[in-house]
Design goal:
The structure is a single chain. The chain is α/β, with parallel strands linked by helices. It is elongated, with a radius of gyration of 52 Å. It has a 7-stranded mixed β-sheet with strand order 1-3-4-2-5-6-7, sandwiched between helices. It has helices spanning about 35-45, 85-100, 120-130, 150-165, 180-195, 210-320, and strands spanning about 5-10, 25-30, 60-65, 70-75, 105-115, 140, 170-175. It has 6 helices and 7 strands, in the order ββαββαβαβαβαα.
Length: about 325
């Protein structure tokens, strides 16, 4: 539901009379410190529509909040406030009981419970009492932001078991800080009250007749027909410009290719001139490399021949002396 209008319309005390109207109602009940006012403010996207206080038991009346002139959110007094006199607590209980009996438009009771703690004796008593009045309470487990994600499932299970809920009963974890569960609560309330978002109606001044729309279409068609020759000429000019640009780019590529070819042809004789002396040097080095092993062989053979001649001459000299 998109909140267009939200206001505190009626406040009923102990001696007040419960108002009678035709709009559907959703009631919120819970302990005095469970966070009913914070829940209502979060649902309305308001900061101070419902007054919050650090002192529990501040809500001592039944407050009717008119939402979009379609439904009422009813804030019931908190129970379990030990500092209040017992006589006042009995009066609050009678006032809530009277409202549940008298209200003809009450669609559901949302019972709030602190998810961090197991249900107290007052929570169990209130749950059973609402069942006894003929309503199947929807449990809102508040202050879920105070827990880690891994702890939420375990705490939800503890709340279900502590209240003795059935599997088909609804429990919604909620946080006024992070707005967790807000959309789920609104979806459930929309189903219970039969709310549907209204379709945006066209203003009378903004509506146009069929004749006016046909005239506008004819004007558009005429303008398009007038602009067609201009568009054709513009397209032709664009095509010519594109062709010219393509030709220019092609000519540039050709010129670059020709310049590169000329440069390469000019460098070829220089490269050949450089190659010739290199070839001569290579040939010389190859010849020298071939000559070196020949010279070594020659020297070896010369040494051997000299040694043989010397040996022969020495032998001859020995024979002559003998």
């Amino acid at each position: 539901m998109i909140i267009r209008n939200a206001e505190l319309e009626t406040v009923c005390g102990i001696t007040s009379r419960i108002p009678e109207h035709e709009l559907p109602e959703i009631a919120f009940a819970g302990k005095s410190n469970v966070g009913k006012s914070s829940l209502i403010n979060a649902l309305m996207n308001r900061k101070s529509l419902a007054r919050t206080s650090s002192q529990p038991g501040k809500t001592q009346t039944i407050n009717f909040y008119n939402i979009n002139h379609f439904m009422y959110l009813v804030d019931l007094p908190g129970y379990g406030f030990t500092k209040a006199p017992e006589s006042e607590r009995i009066k609050w209980g009678r006032m809530v009981e009277n409202y549940l009996h008298v209200s003809k438009q009450l669609k559901a009771v949302f019972l709030l419970a602190d998810i961090r703690h197991k249900p107290s004796a007052n929570d169990k008593q209130m749950y059973e009492w609402v069942l006894h009045q003929g309503y199947r309470p929807v449990i809102i487990a508040t202050k879920s932001d105070k827990l880690k994600r891994s702890q939420v499932c375990r705490c939800v299970k503890d709340v279900r078991e502590g209240l003795g809920m059935h599997d088909e009963d609804i429990l919604i974890p909620f946080s006024a800080e992070t707005k967790q569960g807000r959309e789920e609560i609104w979806q459930l309330m929309d189903k219970l009250t039969g709310w549907e978002e209204p379709v945006k109606e066209e203003k009378a001044a903004g509506k146009k007749s069929r004749k006016e729309t046909e005239k506008e279409l004819q004007r558009k068609l005429q303008k398009e027909a007038e602009n067609e020759p201009l568009k054709e000429t513009e397209n032709e000019f664009r095509k010519e410009d594109e062709n010219d640009s393509q030709k220019e780019t092609e000519n540039e590529f050709q010129k670059e290719a020709e310049n590169e070819f000329r440069k390469e042809t000019e460098k070829e004789p220089e490269k050949e001139a450089e190659r010739k002396p290199r070839r001569k040097v290579q040939k010389k080095t190859e010849k020298e490399a071939e000559r070196k092993p020949r010279r070594k062989v020659q020297k070896k053979t010369q040494k051997k021949s000299r040694k043989k001649v010397q040996k022969k001459t020495q032998k001859k000299a020995k024979k002559v002396r003998a």
